[in-house]
Amino acid sequence: MHDIKLHTFQLLLILLFSFISLTACAAKPPVKPSIYADFIEKMVTEHQFNREELKALLNKAVVKESILKAMSSPAEKRLQWHSYRKIFLKPNRINGGIQFWQENKTLLNAASKKYGVPAEIIVAIIGVETRYGGNTGSYKVLDALTTLGFHFPKRANFFKSELEHFLLLCREEGFDPYEPKGSYAGAMGKSQFISSSYRAYAVDGDGDNKRDLWNSHADIINSIAHYFSKHGWQNSPLITQQTTVEGDAYKALINRSLKPKNTLKQLAEKHVAIPSDLAEDTVVKLLELQQKDHAEFWLTFHNFYVITRYNHSHLYAMAVYQLGQEIKQGYLKTL
């Protein structure tokens, strides 16, 4: 009788443990495939990356909420011109540009002559982007591109493509992909090139068989000039100039397009003042910018549009232009 009770007790224990095990297994969620699986497959198949090494690298990437927040509210979309301008048209940025020009005048002169891009535009780009290298970004590029490529649906395809370019760039230039740091959007160096631009437009300006946009001013200066040249910079002094309007007819010319599409004659017909020394068929865009207590109006030409190829914002391009003019005036006074 005792043996029967013991056997029954043991059987109950076995059944109880079996139930607990089955319950635990049922409660355990199925293993999800890695969010990087398709991307890894692409890199292995198309570019012959090592699967396990790439998997290990991507698993080290950290999703940054601060990156997602910054991407959702860039200054170019958040601020009016009068507020945006104050960020860049400051004495320290102007003086820093004058000093940068003085220290790199030979390189700037050579690049300007080779590519046809004014030195003040090259210097102003570096000033607007990174304060002449004072702030090249604190985010790991790997973190930035994985965060945006896999957790920012609005532009996921773009940033997955940039991650692909970044990994290829690292292989081509001999970078450790876990090391480079940049902006929250993955832009790198004093010129803030994104990975695809780095691969396509960065040049070796000092002949050392490297394209170093962090430390080589020859590479940085020539790469910016090369970028603008490839995007159609014209050997023309026309970039932008201020104008005035009468009445409200000009409003028909205001739109979100960045490309010049109207002739000066068409602007004149809408009571916009036009330069007397330019042909009436010159193509321009009328830009309206908001100062604190009034609007101001600018005629923008082809080269202004080319500046927006660096950053697709008319505020950005105007900041580059005006900072460049201030730097140029200051630099010429030192000669």
Features:
335 residues, alpha+beta, four-stranded antiparallel sheet, two-stranded antiparallel sheet, 16 helices, globular
| Secondary structure category | alpha+beta
**Helical segment tally?**
16
β-strand amount: 5-15%
The total strand number stands at 6
Low-pLDDT ranges: 19-32
Assembly of the depicted chains? single chain
| Percent helix | 40-55%
Which strand order does the major sheet show?
3-6-5-4
Q: How would a textbook summarize the main sheet?
A: 4 strands, antiparallel
Measure the end-to-end span.
113 Å
Radius of gyration: 28 Å
Instruction: Provide the succession of SSEs.
Output: HHHHHHHHHEHHEHHEEHEEHH
Shape: globular
Averaged pLDDT: 92
Describe the protein in words.
The protein contains 16 helices and six strands. It is of the alpha+beta class and 335 residues long. A four-stranded antiparallel sheet has the order 3-6-5-4. The chain has a two-stranded antiparallel ribbon with strand order 1-2. β5 (283-290) and β6 (295-300) form a beta hairpin.
